[in-house]
Amino acid sequence: MTLSSSSFDAIVVGTGPGGASVARELARAGSRVLLLEQGGAAPLAGTVTQMASMAAVPGRGAFIHRDASLLVGGTTLGGSSAVNFATAAAPPAAYFAAYGIDLAPSLAALRAELPLAPLPDTLVGPMATRIMTAARAAGIDWKKLDKMIRPALCRSGCWRCTYGCPYGAKWSARDFVEQAVELGAVLQTGSRVTRVLLEGGRASGVEVKHGGQLQTIHAPLVILSGGGIGSPRILHASRLGPRDAPFFSDPVVAVMGSVADIDGGAEVPMAAGWHDPKAGIALADLTLPRPMYQAFATQVGRVDRLFAHRRTLCIMVKIRDDISGRVGPRWADKRLSDGDRARLQTGERLARTILQAAGARHVFKSWHFAAHPGGSVRIGAGVDANLQTKAPGLYVCDASVIPQPWGLPPTLTLLCLGKRLGQHLARVG
């Protein structure tokens, strides 16, 4: 039996944190769920080649911004959670409370279930420790960050977080997809949804390209979880959204400097950091694999630092950027505003102060890049408080619905939104 002739209660488009979470809740409630993923499902190998195939394919996982910026995302089972830094920032409760949305119950349930805690000292590497000590000496309230990592499976001196953990130490949305499938959900990878089908103004299924062929699959409930770039594109193709959707992307620069008395370069990134929500600036240690570090150094012409990876401290400066730019049918375009530039400059100055306190020399910074596109189908604009679009039966559950720029990793927020949406749909369905 083909999928087009099968009967489903719900189709979830995308297997990132939002899609995986809502699919699991619906499957738990007994719904017949189809999960469609554009990427593949090969086991994570922790290699640069595999990471590039999932997150650096131009036009699919990587998009060029203006101002020499690269926007990246994960096109694979589990979405960007497969290749992120496993940092679990709590949802910005006030953003959602303004729309009558309470994520506290979902957050409490997820905290009881998932590995959500700061790393033990044994897994905080020497570079992160040096940065933490220097930040505190400079009067900055630097603290360990909650990580979605199973300490018993994590390995000190490992650098594979960024490439996709092959040891099962880092939690990803693949875990929830696996649970949904165990509960009866059907997963089909290599499937790119081109548009939502409508009957009488209601969602009735999707058109999907799989194996080079277009097919239609029907269900009375469709949840788009294609991300801050993917979901607005599908809505536009379905004549349910604007051609150009503004968005935020959480721009980042890496500020780096070398020390003489550390021989490292392999540790869990973002073990600790600092955040000023009012200013919209966040800093954290960011030890990167050697090829990524060397790409940054080459990018800005610092070939003199190419072989200093094992001695180089790196601090991530991330900001809350203004919603602007456009997600178009085949591109994403965004420029930094004056406010964005000012926030990056403030964060860079703080990072340089910390590196100076750490005894670092030869300090330089990367060009800016970004990895959290969202806000393109915002609550209160593109969807209502239950994440439903103007078409009954069609919902969106990914970073695109976050109502305001935030500037922190959205994974835990999306898991909460997915859990809440899945429970809502199970009640009303």
Compute the number of helices: 10
Mean pLDDT: 93
Please tell me what the overall shape is. globular
Radius of gyration: 21 Å
Structural class: alpha+beta
> Strand percentage, roughly?
15-25%
Flag low-confidence runs: none
What is the terminal separation in angstroms? 26 Å
Largest sheet features: 9 strands, mixed
Helix percentage range: 25-40%
> What name does CATH use for the topology of the largest domain?
FAD/NAD(P)-binding domain
Order of helices and strands: EHEHEEHHHEHEEEEEHEEEEHEEEHEEEH
Q: Tally of extended strands?
A: 20
Number of domains: 2
Characterization of this structure:
The chain is α+β, with helices and mostly antiparallel strands. The protein folds into two domains: 10-41 and 76-114 and 171-244 and 374-426, FAD/NAD(P)-binding domain (3-Layer(bba) Sandwich); 120-162 and 250-370, Glucose Oxidase, domain 3. The chain is built from ten helices and 20 strands. The strands form four sheets. Strands 3, 4, 5, 12, 13, 14, 15, 18 and 19 form a nine-stranded mixed beta sheet that branches. It has a five-stranded parallel beta sheet with strand order 6-2-1-10-20. Strand 13 and strand 14 (281-285) form a beta hairpin. Helix 1 (17-28) packs parallel to helix 6 (174-182), helix 1 packs parallel to helix 10 (411-428) and helix 4 (104-113) crosses helix 10 (411-428). The radius of gyration is 21 Å and the shape is globular. The relative contact order is 0.21. The mean pLDDT is 93.
